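--- STAGE predict ---
source: upstream dedup step, 1 unique chain passed
mode: sequence only
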Amino acid sequence: MTVWGDMMASLDPEPLVPPAPDNIELVWVDSATGRRADENCQAVVSLPFIHGSAPVETAPCATHAQGQSIKNWFKRLFE
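--- STAGE serialize ---
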């Protein structure tokens, strides 16, 4: 074990960070409502979603929420 520890200490390993798939997006989500939010809201988490599957409704705390609901309504109307 001493030899293994010395060898591993001298290697200076870097953490494994696998690349994110191209079809995945990280979205801030309000944990209380499950709606799209931004990092300025309280109790939000960044969650991975397949492109197009993230929540479209915005949380009231989101700074871009004003006017966004009308845009989302039109988007859903023509999809």
